[in-house]
Automatic annotation (TrEMBL):
Task performed by this protein: In muscle, parvalbumin is thought to be involved in relaxation after contraction. It binds two calcium ions.
GO molecular function: calcium ion binding
Lineage, top ranks: Eukaryota, Metazoa, Chordata, Craniata, Vertebrata
Family: Belongs to the parvalbumin family.
Source organism of this protein record: Apteryx owenii (Little spotted kiwi)
Cellular component GO terms held in the UniProt record: cytoplasm
Protein name: Parvalbumin
């Protein structure tokens, strides 16, 4: 399965255009523009699996640097501060990676965005 099976290519392109400049990435805004904030829990879990590049069951900081490239190959790498912000948003236990608990936190964050940003 590809990310474009879940998210619209035009929404992905718009989200990537919005954060082209270094240090302009906002997880909340990216999730909204890309359409992730409108997806079901099962769709979010599938997106998580796609983002878990090494299929370890965790998304580590090294993988997060390439977060935007998982949506489009030519996208830029996240800066160190952007990577840390994204990690902090979903690293439930502070171990430096997003795991099973983080999946739920990640999904809950998306759901909260859906409720507060309609």
């Amino acid at each position: 399965m590809s990310i474009t099976d879940i998210l619209s290519p035009s929404d992905i392109a718009a989200a990537l255009r919005d954060c082209q400049a270094p240090d302009s990435f906002s997880p909340k805004k990216f999730f909204q523009i890309s359409g992730m904030s409108k997806k079901s829990s099962s769709q979010i879990k599938e997106i998580f699996r796609i983002l878990d590049n090494d299929q370890s069951g965790f998304i580590e900081e090294d993988e997060l640097k390439y977060f935007l490239q998982r949506f489009e190959c030519g996208a830029r790498v996240l800066t160190s501060s952007e990577t840390k912000t994204l990690l902090a948003a979903a690293d439930h236990d502070g171990d430096g990676k997003i795991g099973a608990e983080g999946i739920n936190l990640f999904i809950n964050t998306i759901m909260l965005l859906r409720m507060c940003c309609k």
